[in-house]
Amino acid sequence: MRFEPTMVREEKTARELYEQVKANPARAKFGFGSRLAIVNVDFQQAYTRPDLFPKTSYVTDPDQIAHVNRISAAARALGMPVIWTRVAYKPDAGDAGVWGTRTNTPDSLQNIKYDSDRHAFDPRCVIDEAVDLVYSKRMPSAFFESPLASYLVWHKVDTVVVTGGSTSGCVRATAVDSLSHGYRTIVPEECVADKHESYHYANLTDLLLKYADVVSVAEVEAHLASLGA
């Protein structure tokens, strides 16, 4: 048997396709469970500071970090876990694996070193290091070879809210792993960012169709407020 290609081709932008999927009233949601965690992925200066690192940083919503700080504070006030990740490698980059082989410039991924300016969290992030889980990771997903899975089990979490960047990279990888671990997965649209509109919206569409609820940050805030009422 031989079939002709069935892949749809349309003259629509990635953003238009995303808006079309988002507007579908028949699209079912995973919804929120009873206890959530906020997983804030890679809010480090290499990716958030175009004034310092214009080649690697990205800004989608200028208020992204303010939104993240608000929902993190609300979750923390309810005794729910808040997690912050960032990427870094040892001096010889030997722990970057094959991911670190494509380029080798000062801006390359594997040249983000511990305690460097690129590794440092954006100073706008409000992190409570006495309460929040904070760790460095090597690969895209916040779950890979990290304490996250066991931490969420200990805290009896059933819902994971993923923020950060990039939408097409570490956010997507974390969201897919979150669903694969059995969590209801939520991505607040204003809380994620990418380098290019096409990558950003194409991946939001894919997340929305398969792996996560992509919602407004106001919806996350309203849910947290209802828990505290």
Task: Describe what you observe in this structure.
This protein has helices at about 15-20, 45-50, 65-75, 150-155, 165-180, 195-210, 215-229, and strands spanning about 35-40, 80-85, 135, 160-165, 185-190, 190-195, 215. The protein is an alpha/beta fold. Strands 1, 2, 3, 4, 5, 6 and 7 form a seven-stranded parallel sheet that branches. β4 (about 160-165), α5 (about 165-180) and β5 form a beta-alpha-beta unit. α1 (about 15-20) runs parallel beside α6, α3 (about 65-75) runs parallel beside α7 (about 215-229) and α5 packs parallel to α6 (about 195-210). The longest helix is centred in the last third of the chain and has 15 residues, at about 195-210. It is globular and about 50 Å long. The termini are far apart.
Number of helices: 7
Order of helices and strands: HEHHEEHEHEEHEH
Helix content: 25-40%
How many angstroms separate the termini? 60 Å
Classify the beta-strand content into a percent band: 5-15%
Rounded average pLDDT? 96
* Shape, principal axes of CA atoms: globular
Please give the largest β-sheet: 7 strands, parallel
Please count the beta strands (DSSP E, at least 2 residues each): 7
Low-confidence stretches: none
Q: What structural class should be given to the helix and strand makeup?
A: alpha/beta
The radius of gyration is 18 Å
